[in-house]
């Protein structure tokens, strides 16, 4: 079976950025979003960055994620060469803790925006990329809706059970009944079909 065409282009300034960017790739994998990864520095390999950025939309890329550290110009340089939205991920650095990267990325000149997530905010960059694509693609929108539903589903710490009910009504012995049938494959649909039998007790 042919590989899916990447829709997210991930570029990073150095191989040393790869560990911090793993959560980005992992999140896209988890959401079933195909991506490509390029390592090229805006300063050390400007011609490579130029070519990669300028041709990204022709390759089918919809959103670019650019990670770099220190004097982190990669996101801005990529944004200069592409009509696609660029999300910058400032890398945490040993000398200045990533504030250097953050300020380099976020202080873009008027007319050339990059979105900028938190220092080492690789996972959020992935989610934001899917959200951007979701504005024009119902499949992508559903992926984000599913993710949010899953977060709500697993955020209750009141008991050992995983359920989509607020922790304020959560009690350890609360029986949980899932009425969604196997025919309902979509996760958020399943959530909507969840029903609970809660033994009355004080909250
Ligand atoms: C930046 O300089 C890279 O994005 C990296 O975060 C930082 C250090 O790069 P290396 O010296 O480890 O290659 O260009």
Q: Key terms for this structure?
A:
globular, alpha/beta, two-stranded antiparallel ribbon, 203 residues, 5-stranded parallel beta sheet, disordered C terminus, 7 strands, binds 5-O-phosphono-beta-D-ribofuranose
Describe, in plain words, how this protein is organized in 3D.
The protein has a five-stranded parallel beta sheet with strand order 2-1-3-4-5, sandwiched between helices. Strands 6-7 form a two-stranded antiparallel ribbon. With 203 residues, the protein is an alpha/beta fold. The protein contains seven helices and seven strands. The longest helix is centred in the last third of the chain and has 17 residues, at 138-154. It has helices at 18-31, 46-55, 74-81, 99-106, 122-134, 138-154, 187-192; strands at residues 8-12, 35-39, 63-68, 86-90, 115-116, 176-178, 194-196. The structure holds 5-O-phosphono-beta-D-ribofuranose. 5-O-phosphono-beta-D-ribofuranose (RP5) is lined by residues 13-14, 16-17, 41, 68-70, 91. Residues 13-14, 16-17, 41, 68-70, 91 line the site of 5-O-phosphono-beta-D-ribofuranose.
């Amino acid at each position: 079976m042919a590989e899916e065409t990447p829709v997210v282009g991930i570029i990073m300034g150095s191989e040393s950025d790869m560990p911090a960017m793993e959560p980005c790739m992992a999140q896209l994998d988890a959401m079933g979003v195909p991506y490509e990864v390029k390592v090229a520095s805006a300063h050390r390999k400007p011609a490579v960055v130029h070519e990669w950025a300028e041709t990204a939309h022709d390759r089918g890329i919809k959103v670019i994620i650019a990670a770099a550290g220190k004097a982190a110009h990669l996101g801005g340089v990529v944004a200069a060469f592409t009509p696609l939205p660029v999300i910058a991920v400032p890398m945490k650095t040993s000398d200045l803790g990533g504030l250097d990267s953050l300020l380099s990325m976020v202080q873009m000149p008027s007319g050339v925006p990059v979105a900028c997530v938190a220092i080492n905010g690789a996972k959020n960059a992935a989610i934001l990329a899917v959200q951007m694509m979701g504005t024009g693609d119902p499949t992508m929108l559903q992926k984000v809706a599913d993710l949010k539903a899953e977060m709500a589903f697993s955020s209750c710490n009141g008991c050992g059970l995983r359920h989509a009910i607020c922790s304020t009504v959560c009690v350890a012995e609360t029986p949980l009944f899932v009425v969604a049938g196997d025919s309902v494959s979509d996760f958020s649909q399943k959530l909507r079909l969840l029903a609970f039998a809660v033994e009355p007790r004080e909250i």
